[in-house]
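User: Show me a protein chain along with its predicted structure.
Assistant: Here is one chain, sequence first, then structure tokens.
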Amino acid sequence: MTYFHALFETPLGRCAVAWSSRGVRALQLPDETDAKTLAGLRKRVPSSTERLPSKDAKRAIEFVSGLLSGSTRSVPFPRLDLEGLPEYNINVYNSLRSVQAGSTVSYGELASRTGKPGAARAVGRIVGLNPIPLLIPCHRVIGADGRLHGFSAPGGVATKRRILDLEGTPLPTTSLASASQPRIDTVAAVRFLKSRDPILKTLIERTGPCGLAVDGMKSLFETLLEAIVYQQLTGKAAATIFGRVTELFRPKRVVEPLDILRASDEELRSAGLSGPKIAAIRDLADKTAAGELPSVAELRRLDDEAIVERLTQVRGIGRWTVEMLLIFGLGRPDVLSTGDYGLRKGYAVLYNGGTLPSPRELAAAGERWKPWRSVASWYLWRAAEGVRLPGDKSC
């Protein structure tokens, strides 16, 4: 079978789609560069030729662009090419397609819908192998505890939350929620931002109340372990490998630092981890076991830059990952991730005549939003949705 591909612009960055004469075969969410995005696509479709989109590919592009811009407009759905996949995988994917925007399903519930109520783990692996995310909405699958678990796309859980946020999905209250759960006072933040910035005020009034939600964080080690696996790995392999790593230590409910340190390289390689990835998670486990990383309680007492400095000492953990943890895990109200493409694009749309600011320029402009830059970021992400800048390519 001959496959073709095209790149296209979305509010999250440039995605890639691959198709055959039978329909859409694969979709890759944005990575740092087009080359990395295409490398992720290659894990699903090893060989393809760049070409103008077919009818099915155009429909896929329209669907994905609409979803990532928060549009509720109905668009024609493309044909999907699932030829050659195992029959049960196709059954899971077809059941998943019935989960509507604004709602979620657990792995166990999805297993029951396919006639195998005891197959939650198998379903989890199949969801992680999903070749066509968004069109097959694996982002709508959550844990039985209501928490957001792995997502096989750059940015992992942070990307998953952003997509669910775009769909207006209310997430269930989990057993981890408590009075001590971090919160951001979005009402006070909005009042302040509107008083300081007339342009942002117009956007806030047009957009409505801030929907920024904080997930909280039970274990720093668990959070960073998942981040390492996802941070440098895109495509369908990410969720599969993370699932295999956790499976190595069943029936334990969580993986602990000593589990990683006691495991042999052969065991970790059997889960699909590369040599550098093994070195990274061993570094994380070693630093955690040695007490070099703060506990969640200690993190809450550190300032933002101290947290960035401490956590980026771990292999595989970059500044962007820590900044997303600061916002969505710790509920820090004054974080501006100046390297984030969506924030730079939102600023370009609102203030800069469509020209992307440099990270330094965005940092300087963000001084006016202190001490509520996390909430300003949420509105900048909204500003970036569904807008094409001058020079953007449609495919």
